[in-house]
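For reference, the entry.
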Amino acid sequence: ASLRRLAGSYPAGHPTIAQKLKEIEDAIAGHLRETPELRIDIIHGNVYVDGVSFSRDTQSHAPIVKELSDLGVDSIYIREGVRPEELLAEVGHR
């Protein structure tokens, strides 16, 4: 969600976007070292990561869950080998 906002506020190639992409890439890479796919699902307003309820601090998730729901997104699957430019291209198309 934050990458989407940044992509709408800054021109392509801006250092702020590159920094956020690096943060996301690092977080994803950590997860993908243990499994070949990261699955995030939103079911009835609840967030699940790889099928396990991710209920820590659900109040802070509410704005992100709403934004994704408003976009029609209820699942995000990220597979091993995803490139940062693919993530950026996806948020640009929403």
